[in-house]
Amino acid sequence: MNVAGLKKLTYMVNTAILIMVFGLMAFFVFAKAKFLVWFSIPTALVYVIGYILISRGKLYEYVVLVYSWITVYMGICTVCLGYDYGFHLYGMSMIPIIFYTDYMGRKIGGKKVNPFIFSGLIVIFYLISSLIPYIRGPVYMADKSIARVFWVTNSVIVFGFLIFYTNVLIKMTIRTEETLENMALRDNLTNIPNRHYMMRCLEETDKSESAAYIAMIDIDSFKSINDVYGHNAGDMVLKSLADIMKENCKDFSISRWGGEEFLILITEKENQKLSDDYLKERMEKLRQSVEDAQLEYEGKDIRITVTIGVAGKDGWPTIERWVDAADDKLYYGKNNGKNQVVM
Predict the structure, then answer these.
(1) What is the pLDDT of residues 83-124, one digit of tens each?
(2) Among residues 61, 177, 178, 260, which one is catalytic?
(3) CA separation for the pair 202, 17 (Å, rounded)
(4) Residue 298 annotated in active site
(5) pTM score, two decimals?
(6) Which residues on neighbouring strands pair with residue 253, listed in sequence order?
(7) Which of 96, 166, 226, 338 is the most buried (most CB within 10 A)?
(8) CB 227: neighbour CB atoms within 10 A?
């Protein structure tokens, strides 16, 4: 989740809690719990300050301030009214919020909290605030007829907090895993899938009974490009070739195999049966597109060509042998003139 998303989420939560504080304040007036009525005023001010912190992007400070105050506020409500009203239950909902705070601190400002220490303090505060009215009785003897209503209402809110923040944490974990997986399967320079991704595709294809081919592509005389124009020019060439492949091979799986080598996986589809003529035509079109490309680096024209080796899946006992077959055809082309497709 980005900072804008965190701010929007925090605004919504702050507004919901502020509305709840005013609702509780009205009940405290009805219950003649004067201390809690007056204590609700600084509580409301805390959430007003919360809006200021959110607007200034101080989300970490906001979470620490607001949820620490919630814990204290609900503990005092428990001491004053007793645990029959369910205010003590809010202590449980603070636990996932503390871990969310730890994430937020790392995400925004590199600030860290120890969620286990804070969770332990919350548990201690929860036990103390619950035991006091159990042993000595509540400070205010409010109308017991509405205690069940408050118990249910507070229970629903607490479970709502637990569900909401657990869902947020799980979604953040899933997004993080997806991002890491995408980074692991994508080549940073060319922004196309890398060797690891292609190996997954090859393993899936190897289990299928459908026809499939791979095309190994290598840039001719790539070393001379780096030597003459520099490595930055070489990187530009690699990215340009990847773009040309994406344009010409939209219906194929492409990847950077390593260095200046690329690998294309061509699988049979319902509307397209694979044949040598079809593959030759597609690979020749790709080869010609590369040869015709006019690349420029720092005002200098760079022309490149590629050699392509193509091998079918059938007849090879392993994926490695299949790839080697395409590689052998590639190097046959490299040693016999370059800039050609070898089937």
Answers:
(1) 888 888 887 777 777 777 666 666 666 566 677 887 888 888
(2) 260
(3) 53
(4) no
(5) 0.61
(6) 265
(7) 96
(8) 11
